[in-house]
């Protein structure tokens, strides 16, 4: 019992590592590297936030450009 407790204390259970291993458990070894892991998903969400900020900047620049075109037409 003490050995099991010591092993668990040294290597805590990681939910993300468990999900990653379950994701590819039934996939042939040759194809496992091509499967996205759940642990990589938060990084993808961060990139989505970057895209949202870029969209906000593009909208602001579009408004400025429209105002400049309207001002030069008048």
Structure description:
69% of the residues lie in helices and 0% in strands. The protein is mainly alpha-helical and 74 residues long. The longest helix has 33 residues. It starts with a helix and ends with a helix.
Category by helix and strand content:
mainly alpha
**What is the overall number of helices?**
3
Stretches where pLDDT falls below 50 for ≥5 residues?
A: 1-5
Order of helices and strands: HHH
Q: What is the number of strand segments?
A: 0
**Which percent range fits the helix content?**
55-70%
**Cα gyration radius (Å):** 25 Å
For the record, give the distance between the C-alpha atoms at the N and C termini, rounded to a whole number: 85 Å
Q: Average pLDDT across residues?
A: 79
* Main beta sheet strand tally, sense and closure: none
Shape: elongated
Outline the secondary-structure elements.
Layout: H1 2-10, H2 15-23, H3 41-73
Question: What's the short version?
Answer:
The protein is mainly alpha-helical and 74 residues long. The chain contains 3 helices and no strands. The longest helix is centred in the C-terminal third of the chain and has 33 residues, at 41-73.
Highlighted features:
74 residues, 0% strand, mainly alpha, disordered N terminus, 3 helices
